[in-house]
Amino acid sequence: SSAYAGFITTIVGGLAEMLVAFLGKILTAEIGVLLAVTQYNDFITSPPVTLGWTIVRDLVNMFFVLILLIIALATILHYEEYTYKKLLKDVILAALFVNFSKTIAGFFIDFAQVVMMTFVNGFAIAGGAGAGNFVELLQINQLLNLKTDDVEISTMNLVMSFLLAIVFMLISVVVVGVMLAVFVFRILMLWALVVFSPLPWLLNTFPAGKTHA
Description:
The chain is an all-alpha fold.
């Protein structure tokens, strides 16, 4: 009957609105954290990175002394592959680049940040700073307020529209959550890469290390 159908749609609609509102709060929190994470740019100045890079740099500088000794011995023994004529220039350049490796890494990261923020700003403008903009973007309000004149059809349409609104919100929460995880992982990986950035310059100074540099 009409009353029974109206009762069902009212209950289902109320539950759907509550669930969408709950998912909206989760989405709002995720978007706020996501925008904060994407704007992070202390990749070369954070204390763990500064300390770790200093330790790696000092160890690499110690290896340069060992490499110079190997070059001296190879030159005396006429071992052509490791003589000063072939390696000394690379060692001097590497010693210079090692001590500026953090600055070099920071330059490339800053360039990548500019490109990334271009897309993030587009995302922020489209999605706004909260889940309300995503609700409008996905037209979830229209789904929750769907109405028709035919009671039997409207009951099915309303139930399906409520379910569709919930599915859209769930997809939004999952997608933004995955994006957040990727950006957090990106920060951790860039920290590690900056810390170990002196190593490629060291490996590039001798033939056995060039393939790994």
